[in-house]
């Protein structure tokens, strides 16, 4: 069901972090001529995995090793040593220098790896085989309720991506974890430029709870086996894959029952549109109103209004709609209210805000805020 | 139980906005020589009440008229006309020009006042009598579960304040609504300077859900009847009254079961301390961890770490404690963990973060995030 991407190797299994579900993945690209690009969290408490990753040459990556269930964050010198050990193991297994391996680790913060148990588990794993991205998508899950995988073809090539992340989610320059593979042939410079443009519109445009992870990492690997591709088409395919992953992430947000897409148009520029869209998508009052299928456009207005620095936003120029049904400023008729309520009962809610200033636009993906989010996060234990 | 403040008049009652609870208050200072100061929300969607208030001379206020249950926000030209009508009625009742009356209105957004019903209710009210601040505190409540009133004496004078607000609460320059009265004699310039300094440390330091109201207003009135006071003592008394009100607001936050006080010290400056303290106090993951009495200092570290612009925050210099019990970087023993859990089961939780940079400090007041918040806000209807 998940298509294979020529030129990649993978290995997944349980190494004793979680009970018996997969908690370990190794994904490698077979040729040293492969291209790659990577972006990381900007957190000031980034863990050793991210710290090591920031030091390496992002265009010469040969693979990534992923541990799920333990973030190895705020673990001091021992945590850094453990990340180096994991990287060395992965390099040896894939037959490349340790410095070409990315380490990604998510889960509980502040707990050292159970290294002995992990080592026993890793020794018992089979040798890597042709990449199985579906298995990788499963192995990298933590509190995710379902694996996240998406693919598109572009010319003779294919793009397949996986992602995880359902809480502590407001990535800035990267999502929790996402890995993208392609057999397209592309230079590292072009790949980096295209990837950053795509990440800005996708992983940087999702927010589940406004909390930025210490471990966010997104990387793309291109094996080159399918030969060159049209760059415009490649960027479009990568954008579609990443957008699909981001929608999966948002709709699987902790406790979420609905995907919320906030489309802001008519802004001074895209940056202003993004600021306003994030303000709406992150507002607990908007998120709970959507959860209750309440067409409470007043809360959307509040969330626009609290962007206090934006003095060119004037109440009289703003328009607010849900799924194309205008809610403000046209006064609500009982019929329109009924239409809006019916629309808000759906699984996906689009909130449209036009600022009436210029042509800036941005779309942010989020989810509703439910009792489920509280239960998950009040009960989750350190 | 709530002391009387010489030189003030009030009137409260039901005028048909809510069912039969008080929903209307008028508070006036008797002498034209009184001093006053006021701060408002910075929302771009501020309602006509705040818009009218921003135009008037803040040092020459004679009173405030408060409607609870309807915010009169995003109500267009008719809403502005209704606010002017309310103000004129209040001026006539208190015997002063309409332009010396502040209008404050909170509740549902986007619904016009039921003017005819209100007028009938207002006509049936008794004449204003000596101020009853306890009755005012009750009449201005919306979803508050209890009235909020605090007082201190300073020299021969007294300071009594009331406040309301439990949701859509991250004031910037003012809280939802707070009115402070004193019989101290003080110049308008001194009162304004002192009030702004106090507001910055109190109402601007509370956050329940990071959502900024369209209607926030805080005002102080000084009748002067007690004669002059020492300014340092007056500021200290006002700070204590406002801090007490802010703690009442935070602990009555929608659905809240615990007051959270985030004390950041060792910052580059107070502004940095405030940024970090708000990041921690607003983090849904910190708020749910406190709700679950889980000493998850990793989430506090995450919330500090997501202040990405603060490049002088270094993980190795940060210390995190709960109620004086250090949690990071000292590795947790089972005994410390048990102590922390016991501490977190209390009604008030103090989270201490020292950044280890310089002497900047700031304290922010918030509350935990519970199923109750979701229920209140998913069910509340427009």
Automatic annotation (TrEMBL), chains A, B:
Transmembrane parts of this sequence: none
Site (described: Cleavage): 174-175
Keyword annotations: Acyltransferase, Amino-acid biosynthesis, Arginine biosynthesis, Autocatalytic cleavage, Cytoplasm, Multifunctional enzyme, Transferase
Catalytic center residues: 175 (nucleophile)
Keyword presence, Transferase: yes
Underlying gene: argJ
HAMAP family, A to Z: ArgJ (MF_01106)
Endpoints of the signal sequence: none
Origin: domain of life: Bacteria
EC number assigned by the record: 2.3.1.35, 2.3.1.1
Pathway info: Amino-acid biosynthesis; L-arginine biosynthesis; L-ornithine and N-acetyl-L-glutamate from L-glutamate and N(2)-acetyl-L-ornithine (cyclic): step 1/1; Amino-acid biosynthesis; L-arginine biosynthesis; N(2)-acetyl-L-ornithine from L-glutamate: step 1/4
GO cellular component term, pick one: cytoplasm
NCBIfam families tied to this protein: ArgJ (TIGR00120), PRK05388.1 (NF003802)
Catalytic activity line of the entry: N(2)-acetyl-L-ornithine + L-glutamate = N-acetyl-L-glutamate + L-ornithine; L-glutamate + acetyl-CoA = N-acetyl-L-glutamate + CoA + H(+)
Protein name: Arginine biosynthesis bifunctional protein ArgJ
Quaternary structure and partners: Heterotetramer of two alpha and two beta chains.
Main location: cytoplasm
Function recorded in the entry: Catalyzes two activities which are involved in the cyclic version of arginine biosynthesis: the synthesis of N-acetylglutamate from glutamate and acetyl-CoA as the acetyl donor, and of ornithine by transacetylation between N(2)-acetylornithine and glutamate.
Matching CDD domains: OAT
Compartment(s) where it occurs, according to its Swiss-Prot or TrEMBL record: Cytoplasm
UniProt keyword annotation of DNA-binding present: no
GO biological process, one term: L-arginine biosynthetic process
